[in-house]
Amino acid sequence: MGEYAKQITKRIRHVGLKEGFCLICGIYGKLSQDHVPPSSCVTIQRVEQRLVTEMLGPEAKKFAGIKARNGSSFRTICEECNNKLGRCDGVVSEAYKKLTKHALSYYRSIDSFGVLASAPINPIVYARSLIGHMLAATSDQECLRAPEHSEYYDPLKRFVLGDDSALDETHDIYYWYYPKNIHISAKSVIVRNRGHQTTVSVLSFFPVAFMVTLKGQGIYPAQAVKLSFSDKSLIINLSSTNLPFVDFPFVPLSGDQFYMLYDAQAIVSYPTGR
Ligand SMILES: [Zn+2]
After folding, report:
1. What are the CA-CA distances from residue 72 to residues 36, 39, 108, 127, 247 (Å)?
2. Torsion region of 242: left, alpha or beta (phi above 0 gives left; psi -120 to 50 gives alpha)
3. Which of 26, 67, 128, 133 is the most exposed place for a label (fewest CB within 10 A)?
4. 258-260 vs 32-35, strand pairing mode
5. How far is the CA of 235 from the centre of ligand 1 (A)?
6. pLDDT tens track for 158-194
7. From CA 56, how far away is CA 188, in angstroms rounded?
8. 105 CA distance to ligand 1 centroid (A)?
């Protein structure tokens, strides 16, 4: 099928807003462009954005993505919140550079590099950056409505705005090795397992997948490690054991397992190299 015959991604209906309610602080005003993944964490290049649902199944080739020259971005937060995230991003990029270096050496079979890669981290600053970008990486139509009370999102917003203990009683954070160069962000995914269900949000870009759930729900991929705010480092297992589950939703979906999501809130971006 030629490019001309493709249907443009539905993502096109969820970009272009200039003003709205910031998805972090909730203040109405001019919206600024947030790069997700953060600019400092990836090589800025030409990318395409599509919805996760347009990457699955036999119709996947039918959709053309939204093209961008300078990386994947979302205009859903105010400039002040954007700057706040920018001040945290360095912690993520430093850690991911170390993990990436280790992963490359491991794949090149340099003997001194084992299957576990680690990087020192300030876990609060790290989580603040990723949760902020996770809140931002979505449909701009969310900015049209004034924020309403949400058991799931209110503590996340407070945490990003500077309350270090906002998640202590409400949320768990998990992470694991993510070996692909496709970025995935998905908010408010309902995941069901063994008769129990919960809400999760995910932000994945090489080399780590990062997930936030409501506290104590016990639903997370088998390969996940729980992030504690007393951790001194991120540790990822580069083993190929988990390779069958590197794609969204990162679990086998056997038995009664399933997930539900609103398609506009689950987005991928990938380099096009053109
Ligand atoms: Zn804001």
Report:
1. 6, 9, 29, 20, 19
2. alpha
3. 67
4. unpaired
5. 31
6. 999 999 999 999 999 999 999 998 999 999 999 888 8
7. 19
8. 40
Cα 102 to Cα 39, 52, 107, 208: the distances in Å are 21, 29, 9, 13
Query: Could you tell me the two tokens for 7?
Result: 């249907």
Q: What is the distance in A from the centroid of ligand 1 to the CA of 180? A: 31
Rounded to the nearest whole angstrom, what is the distance from the C-alpha of residue 130 to the centroid of ligand 1?
15
CA of 159 to the centre of ligand 1 (A): 13
Burial (CB count within 10 angstroms: exposed 0-12, middle 13-18, buried 19+), residue 1: exposed
Find out whether 177 and 238 touch, Cβ atoms under 8 Å: yes
> For residue 73, which amino acid is it?
S
Ligand 1 geometric centre to CA of 11 (Å): 23
- Between the CA of 103 and the centroid of ligand 1 the distance, in Å, is 35
The model carries a pTM of 0.94
As given in the structure block, the two tokens for residue 4 are: 């001309």
| Bridge partners, 268 (sequence order) | 50, 184
CA of 80 to the centre of ligand 1 (A): 6
pLDDT tens-digit profile of 222-256?
889 999 999 999 999 998 776 777 778 888 778 88
User: In 3D, which of 272, 273, 247, 213 has the Cα closest to residue 66?
Assistant: 272
Report the C-alpha gap between 66 and 73 in whole angstroms: 11
